[in-house]
Amino acid sequence: MSIEYPDADDGALVQDDRLWQGNGWTARVIKNEDDDGWAVAMIKDGEPEPALVGPWTMGRDKKNPKPLDVNAFNTLVKTANEVIRRHEQQLHAQLHKNVTVGTDDGPVKVCLDITPDEDDPYATLSAFDQYGEELAKVRVAPTFKLSVSSASAWIDSSYKKP
Q: How far apart are CA 15 and CA 41, in angstroms?
């Protein structure tokens, strides 16, 4: 049994002053085009664009960037992961909305789930009783505005397509 060690050309991780790879990320220190300073770009493996670009500290000579190190890289990875998580939460909130409407039969939860398909975007409007049982489900335009009043009107129409 032989153990192979990766050569530098074999995709081994680079951990250099201006380029650091690991944990599925690459940190690249770049010249800030807007001023004399430096920036760091955090790129998730497999992604074409950086998830995070931010200012980077100058070195002691006040001319060159501070070198990357394992502690700085780990902090950058944590920050970039948080940025992605917040973006995903925001996108989820835009695509999945719900309101609760009080009815004579108890509360009804009305959900709007948008499917942002490039060719045929659409949304699904669903209603659930207080026990989670589905009462109705219809396909609507992705621009449908869900509110308590639009949900109430849908319920009052016996769940006819709005």
A: 15
